[in-house]
Design a protein that fits this description.
This protein is 16% helix and 30% strand. Strands 3, 6, 7, 8, 11, 12 and 13 form a 7-stranded antiparallel sheet that branches. Strands 1, 2, 4, 5, 9 and 10 form a 6-stranded mixed sheet that branches. It is of the alpha+beta class. The longest helix is centred in the first third of the chain and has 30 residues. The chain folds into 2 domains: 32 residues; 212 residues, Immunoglobulin-like, CATH 2.60.40.1190. The N and C termini lie far apart (53 Å). About 10% of the residues have low confidence.
Length: 249
C-alpha cells in the first residue's frame, strides 16, 4: 500500500513539474516577441521643454540611447533616403511612477512642420505605438482596445499637436489633452520630448512591466507640396498596425 501511495505521489510530482515547465515556456514565448528597447527608470520628473538635459536616472542605471541611422531603418520609401543628415534619430525611453517619457533627437536637413493640426500627417512628426497589455495578447496581429497609436507634431507657429490615430475606435481626447509634448528646432534637425501619463494608459509600472512599443519618425521635405515622404522605424520587422511586430520594454 505504501509503495502504491509513493508511486502515485511521484507521478503527481512529475505532472506538476511538467505543467510548471510548460507554463514557463509559454510565458517566455509571450514576452520574447520582437527586440527589446531598453527603458530606464527615472527617480524624479522631467521638464518637458524640448531641450536635451541629463535624465535623472536612478543609481546604477545605464544611460541608454537607441540610434536609428541606417537605410534599413527606413521602412517606408527607403529609396528616397539620402543619408543620416536626411533622416536619422537617437531615441531615449524612460519611465517613473507618473509617466512614460520619450526623447527623440532627430537629424533632418529639411524640417517642415504643419501649417495647422489637420496637416499633421503631411509634416515632420513622430508616432508612438503601444501595446499596453503585451503578455495578455502577444499573438494578436490586430490592434485592439489595449493598443494605441499616437502622432505628435508641431505647427509652424509653435503649437504642439497630439493626435490619437488608433484605428477602429473613437479618439481619446482626454489622452490627447493629457500628453505633454515639446519641440525644439536646431541646426541639424529638431528635438521632441513627450510625457504620457500612465494613469491615462491604465498601466501599473510594477504589475504591467512588459509593454509593446514601436517608434516612428515621419519625414516631409517639401514645404510647398507637403506629403509623407519617408518613415523611419525602431523595428525593421515592423508591419503596419500589427502589434506582433512591435518591440518591447
Amino acid at each position: 500500500m505504501k509503495k502504491k501511495v509513493f508511486q502515485l505521489l511521484w507521478y503527481l510530482c512529475l505532472v506538476m513539474l511538467w505543467f510548471i515547465g510548460t507554463e514557463k515556456i509559454v510565458l517566455q514565448q509571450a514576452s520574447a516577441r520582437g527586440d527589446e528597447l531598453y527603458a530606464v527608470e527615472l527617480d524624479s520628473p522631467i521638464v518637458i521643454d524640448g531641450t536635451v538635459e541629463r535624465w535623472p536616472y536612478i543609481d546604477g542605471a545605464p544611460e541608454t540611447e537607441h540610434a536609428f541611422s541606417k537605410e534599413a531603418d527606413v521602412v517606408f520609401h527607403p529609396e528616397r533616403w539620402k543619408g543620416e543628415e536626411d533622416l536619422s534619430a537617437t531615441i531615449c525611453v524612460g519611465w517613473n511612477e507618473q509617466n512614460l517619457h520619450f526623447t527623440f533627437k532627430i537629424r533632418d536637413n529639411q524640417v517642415v512642420f504643419a501649417k495647422n493640426p489637420e496637416q499633421l500627417l503631411k509634416s515632420d512628426h513622430v508616432e508612438i505605438w503601444l501595446d499596453t497589455q503585451l503578455d495578455y495578447d502577444c499573438e494578436n496581429a490586430k490592434m485592439n482596445e489595449d493598443d494605441l497609436q499616437l502622432a505628435i507634431g508641431m505647427t509652424r507657429n509653435g503649437q504642439p499637436i497630439v493626435a490619437d490615430w488608433t484605428p477602429r475606435r473613437k479618439r481619446n481626447e482626454a489622452l490627447e489633452r493629457g500628453v505633454k509634448a515639446a519641440f525644439q528646432k536646431n541646426a541639424k534637425g529638431y528635438i521632441v520630448e513627450v510625457a504620457i501619463p500612465l494613469a491615462l494608459l491604465k498601466i501599473n509600472p510594477v504589475q504591467d512591466w512588459r509593454i509593446g512599443v514601436l517608434l516612428d519618425v515621419s519625414d516631409t521635405d517639401n514645404a510647398d507640396n507637403p506629403r509623407q515622404e519617408k518613415l523611419l522605424y525602431s523595428s525593421q520587422e515592423r508591419r503596419f498596425r500589427d502589434p506582433t511586430s512591435f518591440m518591447y520594454f
